[in-house]
Automatic annotation (TrEMBL):
InterPro entries: ERV/ALR_sulphydryl_oxid_sf, ERV/ALR_sulphydryl_oxidase, Sulfhydryl_oxidase, Thioredoxin-like_sf, Thioredoxin_CS, Thioredoxin_domain. It comes from Camelina sativa. Residues 289-391 form the ERV/ALR sulfhydryl oxidase domain. The gene is LOC104779427. This is Sulfhydryl oxidase. It is an enzyme of class 1 (oxidoreductase). The lineage of its organism: Eukaryota, Viridiplantae, Streptophyta, Embryophyta, Tracheophyta.
């Protein structure tokens, strides 16, 4: 038995009295004081596979080790630069740690030949997935960080690796990585994780606010979840939504949901809509240059646009109703939801064409932009790096413009439609890497194409049924579910 294992054994004995609670990884990073992401055997591969960060640092430590305890503030100082909602340089380095004193992590630590604590590794996150590391193998892309004893030295080491000049006292508002030039067509591909994060955040808000309060809000919630199950761009969000749908009658009997996360009981809180490991606190495309700008509401817009371009003609009116009702019932910004509802109510004829719906969402968003342009200019509340504009600007889509002057723009709607379809369709998902969550063998989702579950169908039932079927859920439960929903569903709007 090696010295490390002996120490580990004694450490475990000491630690046995204080069992550390399991943490919900990146999802809860925003709530944690610690910024380094705690990994363990069960989430190690998935977190490192899914992170949008380009590099990862993995610290193997033992919670009983005094040197590790003393090292923690140093590691955290660096982690604070890169991780969490207030990161100065987000999306570049994922700082993680694995507690080797936990018995469940023994094999994981062995795979990396951990010989002392703390021991730090560096590499592209995906290179850690299913990896092993041995001291003699110098071909590996995983490197041991041999000079990271203090925060300064660790950051210097990282700076040398990636040819950067980050400093511990970098300020958030001088964040050179926040995207200020959104006229770059390719930047939307970074929003794919924002859409997942906004979806998870919207769902969390519903849980925290216990917002499903009536049969009306319950029906609205179901409709939106149906839309997500069929057309969310992320497979794990589609799967999470489908699971909620199938179990909804048990989670919310007669619309009375139990929200708390509970070990034993089946509750809505136990069904994270996009799975447990959705990156949180990143908002890359939607990251503001100030703490309180952009983020969630920007992510929500991108989600709405991305849904709009994925529905078929026959589903367009259902999608419209689902989105309007969702915003009206669950977007906890009174002004936003009231304005948006007015614009929804101004639609007098049901949508028959997906194209019309896509263009309606676009022009509605522009109406919001136009109003906010004035408000933000007079109140100084906007994000200085992201002033509101009528969108898309010419730089992004010259062909969308037939003519324009100071007062008005004449749009070429065919070009606008094609532009939106591509921008929020294939372009948005072009960087996406995601493990199949269907339970078959691992596969990488192709960059484009398959992320939409196309349904030409009679909208609701078939759209969600497809997603549910994809998620390999039982058809019996499905049939039963639909029957119940069909019985309970009352139309909310009349279209006379
Ligand atoms: P956002 O407006 O959030 O846009 C996000 C991204 O979408 C932009 O960066 C751009 O790339 C793209 N985009 C911009 N315009 C369009 C368009 N027309 N079509 C397609 N893509 C576009 N705030 C208020 O203060 N008052 C309100 O009444 C209000 N209503 C809202 C209603 C809804 C449904 C939502 C989701 C948000 C609302 N907000 C409102 C918030 C506001 O619209 C912005 O989301 C917020 O100010 C952040 O702005 P942003 O700069 O991140 O860009």
């Amino acid at each position: 038995m090696s010295l490390v294992h002996l120490l580990l054994f004694f450490g475990l004995v000491i630690a046995a009295s204080s069992t550390p609670g399991s943490r919900l990884i990146l999802r809860e990073i925003a709530d944690q004081k610690d910024r380094a992401v705690e990994l363990n055997t069960s989430n190690f591969d998935s977190v490192l596979k899914d992170t949008p960060a380009k590099y990862a640092v993995v610290e193997f430590f033992a919670h009983w080790c005094p040197a590790c305890r003393n090292y923690k503030p140093h590691y955290e100082k660096v982690a604070r630069l890169f991780n969490g909602p207030d990161a100065i340089h987000p999306g570049i380095v994922l700082m993680t740690r694995v507690d080797c004193a936990l018995k469940t992590n023994t094999k994981l630590c062995d795979k990396f030949s951990v010989s002392h604590y703390p021991m730090l590794f560096w590499g592209p996150p995906t290179k850690f997935v299913s990896a092993t590391w041995e001291p003699q193998k110098d071909k590996s892309e995983i490197l041991v960080i041999d000079d990271g004893r203090t925060a300064d030295r660790l950051l210097n080491w990282i700076n040398k690796q990636i040819d950067s000049s980050y400093a511990l006292d970098d300020q958030k508002f001088e964040n050179e990585h926040s995207l200020s030039n959104l006229t770059d067509y390719n930047q939307i591909s970074q929003a794919v994780y924002d859409v997942e994060e906004a979806t998870a955040e919207a769902f969390d808000i519903i849980l925290v606010q216990k917002a499903i309060k009536s049969s009306e809000t319950s029906a609205s919630f179901i409709r939106f979840i149906q839309l997500l199950a069929a057309h969310h761009l992320s497979r794990r969000c589609r799967k999470g939504a489908a699971e909620i749908l199938v179990n909804y009658d048990d989670l919310c009997p007669s619309g009375n949901c139990s929200y708390e996360k509970s070990g034993g009981k089946d509750t809505l809180g136990n069904y994270p809509i996009c799975g447990k490991d959705v990156p949180r606190g990143y908002y890359m495309f939607c990251r503001g240059s100030k703490n309180d700008t952009r983020g969630f509401s920007c992510g929500l817009w991108v989600l709405i646009h991305s849904l709009s371009v994925r529905v078929e003609d026959g589903e367009s009116h259902f999608a419209f109703t689902a989105i309007c009702d969702f915003v009206n019932n669950f977007f906890m910004c009174d002004e936003c939801r009231l304005h948006f509802n007015d614009m929804c109510l101004s639609v007098k004829t049901p949508f028959k064409k997906a194209r019309d719906f896509v263009l309606w969402v676009w022009s509605t968003h522009n109406k919001v932009n136009e109003r906010l342009m004035k408000d933000e200019a007079s109140l100084g509340t906007g994000d200085p790096k992201f002033p509101k504009i009528i969108w898309p600007p010419k730089e992004l889509c010259p062909l969308c413009y037939l003519s324009s002057n100071q007062k008005s723009i004449e749009w070429d709607h065919d070009h606008v439609y094609n532009f939106l379809k591509n921008y929020y369709g294939p372009k948005l998902v072009s960087l996406y890497k995601e493990k199949s969550v269907i339970g078959r063998k691992e596969e990488t989702v192709p960059a484009t194409g398959d992320l939409t579950v196309a349904t030409n169908a009679l909208v609701v039932p078939i759209g969600a049924a497809l997603a549910i079927a994809i998620a390999s859920c039982a058809f019996g439960a499905l049939a039963c579910y639909w029957r119940t929903q069909q019985k309970n569903r009352k139309p909310r709007r009349s279209w006379n």
